[in-house]
Structure formats: structure tokens, C-alpha cells
């Protein structure tokens, strides 16, 4: 597979130096999983992860920004495994905000995941979606919930269909507060399917992975 590396990318907004981003945060076992995953699964994961990204039409790139660089290191590892180009950098000299930017051509914010219903790639897509837009308690002793949130009702509905095709039961998609944001939607995994979700979908987000492992007593 050829790398997508547009000319002049190094002159775009911000520094393209990898140095400011810690590069040794990916746990060894997780890193091994990424290396063993197949290409179609990694690509599906990136499409799900892009739910937290933005598209720059000016530069022809996608950007994912985080206050904690751990997950961006994982995304960079995935791009490296696919032999694709990505730039990880700190935005500004003093801000605690990091960005991963890439110009890979197959990524799309309008990606339709409905053909992935019932496939293993569908689980990879949901894993990326959950890592980008999913929520669970930060304390391992708190009452467990697994939620996914998005402004795109249609994409969240596809996530629901993928999960239910694997017998992971979900509640209805709902708006938690029409007054605050009428275009914001949330989906909960039902309690009886929590363990199945954590086993089959899991997470490649280092922080969420640690929380899931604590719940599973791994």
C-alpha cells in the first residue's frame, strides 16, 4: 500500500515534529494487537475514530485533537502499521492540546458503515467510534454504563445495528437534552450486554482500555 503524503504538508499550520508528542505511551500488549490486526480492521477502526475528527478542505487533511496524547500515539501506530503518513504535534507552545493530522485518501467524515453490519470489521469500526465518542465511568467501582454519543443520528443508528447484529443489546437512541442541543444523540449499551461489549468491542484507547481491564479483572 502506498503512503498518502501530499507535497507541502510540512508547511501547513503548526509544527509537524513528532518530538513534542510522547511516543512510548502505547502499552506493549496493545501495541502487539495493533501489529496483528488485519488491514481491513485497522481501516474500519480509523473510520470510526474519525467521528472525533474534522476535515480541512484547504489542506485536504483530517485532524483529530486531544488534551491527552495517549490515544493519538495509538492512531499514529495504526497509520504506521498501514504504511500511511500522519503528523502528530502539539498545537502551540504552551497549550496542553495535541493533534494528529493525516491526508490518507480512504478516510471520510461521511463514511457509511452500514455495509459493516454483521462483520468483524463492524466491531472494529465501533471500537474506533467508542474510543472517539464513547463514555464510561472513570472510577472502576462506580456503577457501569457504556455510552456512545454523536451529532449524527444516522451514524449512531448504524452503530446500534452493528452491535445488535452481534447480540449486543442497546437502548433507544435519544437526545439527553433538547434544550441544550437538539442535534446531540446518545446510545447506551444495555446492562446485560456490558460484558459482551467489553469482550468483543473492547477499546484501543489506552485510558479506556485500562478501565475495561479493571472491570473485567484482567
Structure, explained:
The chain has 218 residues and is of the alpha+beta class. The protein has two domains: 9-102, Endonuclease I-creI (Roll), CATH 3.10.28; 114-216, Homing endonucleases (Endonuclease I-creI). The chain is 35% helix and 14% strand. The chain contains seven helices and seven strands; from the N terminus they run ααββαββαββαβαα. The chain has helices at residues 28-36, 39-49, 70-81, 120-133, 153-165, 194-200, 206-216, and strands at 53-56, 61-66, 86-90, 98-102, 134-135, 147-150, 185-188. It has a four-stranded antiparallel beta sheet, with helices on one face. Strands 5-6-7 form a three-stranded antiparallel beta sheet. Strand 1 (53-56) and strand 2 (61-66) form a beta hairpin. Helix 2 (39-49) packs parallel to helix 4 (120-133). The radius of gyration is 17 Å and the shape is globular. The termini are far apart. The relative contact order is 0.15. Residues 1-24 have low confidence and may be disordered.
Itemize the secondary structure elements and their pairings.
Elements (H helix, E strand, L loop, with lengths): L27 H9 L2 H11 L3 E4 L4 E6 L3 H12 L4 E5 L7 E5 L17 H14 E2 L11 E4 L2 H13 L19 E4 L5 H7 L5 H11 L2
Antiparallel strand pairs: 1-2, 2-4, 3-4, 5-6, 6-7
Helix pairs in contact: 2-4
Amino acid at each position: 500500500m502506498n503512503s498518502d503524503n501530499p507535497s507541502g504538508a510540512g508547511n501547513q499550520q503548526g509544527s509537524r515534529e513528532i518530538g513534542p508528542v510522547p511516543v512510548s505511551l502505547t502499552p506493549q500488549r496493545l501495541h502487539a494487537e495493533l501489529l496483528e490486526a488485519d488491514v481491513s480492521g485497522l481501516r474500519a477502526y480509523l473510520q470510526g475514530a474519525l467521528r472525533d475528527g474534522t476535515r480541512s478542505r484547504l489542506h485536504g487533511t483530517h485532524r483529530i485533537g486531544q488534551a491527552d496524547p495517549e490515544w493519538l500515539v495509538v492512531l499514529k501506530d495504526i497509520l504506521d502499521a498501514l504504511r500511511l503518513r500522519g503528523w502528530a504535534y502539539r498545537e502551540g507552545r504552551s497549550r496542553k492540546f495535541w493533534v494528529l493530522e493525516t491526508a490518507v485518501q480512504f478516510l471520510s467524515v461521511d463514511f457509511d458503515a452500514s455495509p459493516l453490519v454483521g462483520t468483524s470489521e463492524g466491531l472494529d469500526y465501533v471500537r474506533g467510534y467508542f474510543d472517539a465518542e464513547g463514555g464510561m465511568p472513570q472510577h472502576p467501582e462506580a456503577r457501569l454504563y457504556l455510552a456512545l454519543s454523536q451529532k449524527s443520528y444516522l451514524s449512531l443508528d448504524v452503530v446500534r445495528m452493528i452491535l445488535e447484529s452481534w447480540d449486543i443489546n442497546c437502548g433507544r437512541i435519544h437526545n439527553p437534552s433538547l434544550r441544550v442541543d437538539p442535534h446531540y444523540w446518545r446510545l447506551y449499551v444495555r446492562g446485560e450486554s456490558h460484558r459482551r461489549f467489553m469482550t468483543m468491542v473492547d477499546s484501543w484507547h489506552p485510558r479506556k482500555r485500562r478501565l475495561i481491564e479493571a472491570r473485567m479483572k484482567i
